[in-house]
Amino acid sequence: MKILVTGAAGFIGYHLSQRLLAMGHDVVGLDNINDYYDINLKLGRLRELGISGTPADNVLLTGEIFNDRFQFIKMGLEERDNLYNLFETQNFDIICNLAAQAGVRFSLEKPFTYIDSNILGFMNILEACRNYNVKKLVYASSSSVYGLNDKIPFSTDDNVDHPISLYAATKKSNELMAHTYSHLFGIKTTGLRFFTVYGPWGRPDMAMFLFTDAILNDKPIKVFNDGNLSRDFTYIDDIVEGIVATLFDEQQEPLYKVYNIGNSKPVKLLDFISEIEKSTGKTAQKEYLPMQPGDVEKTWADVEALKNDFDYSPDTDIAEGVREFVTWYKSYYNQ
């Protein structure tokens, strides 16, 4: 199949593209390569996929590995005309939309960036699917839609009408927009609420990267809510397997579906830090701070629906996952 992966230079998009290529599919990757975090990390991921040099704007670049089955284009989802041209010329079978402005805390500083990328950009993807007869769209939602929900584990049956960050509000909006297009135009849409994804090539703004970087470089780490937090940390390989399962779902009904995708085994923040200390062989200097605006105390995914429909079974424990990340980090940064 020919599959469009938006956000292909991002953490999850890169790993998904690798997996799809290994399966024998043709992949077109799209990313605007913004400077929310170090673009060299994004370019490094693209090099792993066979794209060398700095990708040019709105020009398809063919990779040098995987039998030239990976192409990349630097483009933002907001570029409606360019996006439509891409759909018109490529004849995609499936779309996996992972592109978005990420980060809960950053949405307090740059709110319009989230509207442009996550709302307008997602609308352009939906319209492109409608106008160019793409009948399947899998897209990234987020565990942040649960807001201050105190019922655990979080279930897709829970009410999510009270987001506490603009980022979360945009993701909830995406789910509502997808429902509308499934109902009106018969597009099969599947939303995936990701729970704290981590692993090699991870994002520098996430706890795994921030803590490892600080500990190895003898800098203090910021521990919010005095360490009274827990997260459903989910290793990247388990996430990718879940995405792949939904991409190739052959069921005709229902047209609209939302799933949680997580490890379903929440880990206390201080235990998570302890695992990093074990893997690095160093002790963290902890700076205890109050809860940050937009953050939640705990996350925990109910993944029974994904297990029932796709036999989803995450099997990477936190110790193994942390070791894999630390090994990658030391190699990438020559430590």
Please describe what this structure looks like:
With 335 residues, the chain is α/β, with parallel strands linked by helices. The chain has one domain (2-197, 233-263, 301-315): 3-Layer(aba) Sandwich (Rossmann fold). Helix content is 39%, strand content 18%. The chain contains ten helices and 14 strands. It has helices at 11-22, 39-48, 80-90, 111-131, 166-185, 207-216, 236-247, 269-280, 304-310, 318-332; strands at 2-6, 26-31, 61-62, 70-74, 94-97, 136-142, 188-194, 197-198, 220-224, 230-231, 234-235, 256-261, 267-268, 285-289. The strands form four sheets. An eight-stranded mixed beta sheet has the order 3-4-2-1-5-6-7-12, sandwiched between helices. The chain has a two-stranded parallel ribbon with strand order 8-11. Strands 9-14 form a two-stranded parallel ribbon. A hairpin with a 7-residue loop joins strand 3 (61-62) and strand 4 (70-74). The model has no long low-confidence stretch (mean pLDDT 94).
Walk me through the topology:
Layout: E1 2-6, H1 11-22, E2 26-31, H2 39-48, E3 61-62, E4 70-74, H3 80-90, E5 94-97, H4 111-131, E6 136-142, H5 166-185, E7 188-194, E8 197-198, H6 207-216, E9 220-224, E10 230-231, E11 234-235, H7 236-247, E12 256-261, E13 267-268, H8 269-280, E14 285-289, H9 304-310, H10 318-332
Parallel strand pairs: 1-2, 1-5, 2-4, 5-6, 6-7, 7-12, 8-11, 9-14
Antiparallel strand pairs: 3-4, 10-13
Tag the structure with descriptive keywords.
39% helix; 10 helices; two-stranded parallel ribbon; globular; alpha/beta; single chain; Rossmann fold; 335 residues
